[in-house]
Amino acid sequence: MLRCGAAAEIAPVRSHDTPCEKRERIGMRGLVLGAASIAVLGAVLTACSAGSPLAADEDRFRAEIRRTAYGVLHIKAANMGGIGYGYGHASAQDNVCEIADRLLQHRAARDDQRVMA
Q: What is the pTM for the complete model shown?
C-alpha cells in the first residue's frame, strides 16, 4: 500500500492531482465524516437510553476483564452472554487501530470508485 504524508486541508478532488494526493484528501474526508458520525451516534444513543426498556438486560452482559502483567486476558462472568460480551470488548480494545484502518480503507475505496466514474 502506498503511504503518503498527512493532508494539510480538505479540498475538492482535482483532475490534475496525483493518486497520492487524491488518497490523502479522500482519507481526511473519511476521517472527519467518521468522527462526526460517531459523535452524533453517541449523542443519539445517550438520549435514547435514558428510559430504554433494554436497561433491564444490562445484568445479562456483565463481565470483569483483567489482564496479567504479560497481557494474558482473564474474563470473569456469571453466564455465557457475559463471557461473549467481555471477549468482544477485549478484542475491540486490542484491535481498535486495525478496525479504524479497515474502515478508512473501505471508505477510501468506495470514494475512489466514485472519483473514477
A: 0.42
